[in-house]
Design goal:
There is one protein chain. The protein is α/β, with parallel strands linked by helices. It has one domain: Alpha-Beta Complex (Maf protein), CATH 3.90.950.20. It is 41% helix and 16% strand. The chain is built from 6 helices and 5 strands, in the order H-E-H-E-H-H-H-E-E-E-H. It has a 5-stranded mixed beta sheet with strand order 2-1-3-4-5, with helices on both faces. A hairpin with a 5-residue loop joins strand 4 and strand 5. Helix 1 packs parallel to helix 6. The chain is globular and about 45 Å long.
Length: 195
């Protein structure tokens, strides 16, 4: 068997990454199966540190067009402002990797799409770019929908993980969060949450 690990990545790291990617594929299939009911629930993504990997995981699955509306890849702060309406004042006050920006990203994705549910991620995937306050492995995820239900969650991955592992773990977490919102899509448990 050929070693498919990247330079500097041990066999166990490569196995973990392979496992994460398989988990993501399974979760994406569950999303298609769960959200394509009658009526279908449409999804949008707003991604910074994952660079479109959440959208790719969903659209890699046949039948995704029934549930996936669109994805926004907003890597730069300008893109976050232009495409999602994130306020410059929010970026200046809290930085791109924050609950506040993740919340504005996900709300922008909902406003600028036909999605019933949206997810956003912004973080530090490494290997550089971290700081004591915002270390490598810190990711903020926003969720919006169904209805007015909106929240942000902090994810902290092992800073020794490779960039690929941090990004794959973030994709899996986002897909799991979308599945968690599936039970609320009827709107019967809708309660607005503060960002």
């Amino acid at each position: 068997m050929n070693d498919t690990s990247s330079p500097g990545e041990s066999g166990s790291d490569a196995d973990m990454l392979s496992g994460l990617r398989a988990d993501c594929r399974q979760l994406a299939q569950e999303i298609i199966d769960t959200f394509s009911g009658d009526p279908a629930t449409m999804i949008a993504t707003a991604e910074s540190c994952t660079g479109g990997l959440i959208a790719a995981a969903i659209t890699d699955i046949a039948g995704s067009s029934a549930v996936f509306d669109r994805g926004f890849v907003t890597y730069s702060n300008d893109a976050k402002q232009d495409m999602l309406g994130v306020r410059a004042a929010t970026l200046e006050a809290y930085g791109a990797v924050s609950a506040q920006v993740a919340t504005e990203m996900v709300l922008g994705a909902r406003r600028r799409s036909r999605a019933d549910i949206a997810v956003s991620v912004t973080g530090v995937a490494g290997p550089g770019g971290g700081s004591p306050d915002k270390p490598v492995g810190l990711v903020w995820m926003g969720l919006s929908g169904p209805g007015d239900l909106t929240s942000a969650a902090e994810l902290r991955w092992d800073p020794s993980w490779s960039r690929d592992m941090i990004r794959a773990a973030t994709v899996c977490a986002a897909l799991e969060a979308l599945l968690g919102r599936a039970e609320l899509r009827s709107g019967s448990q809708d309660t607005p949450a503060s960002p």
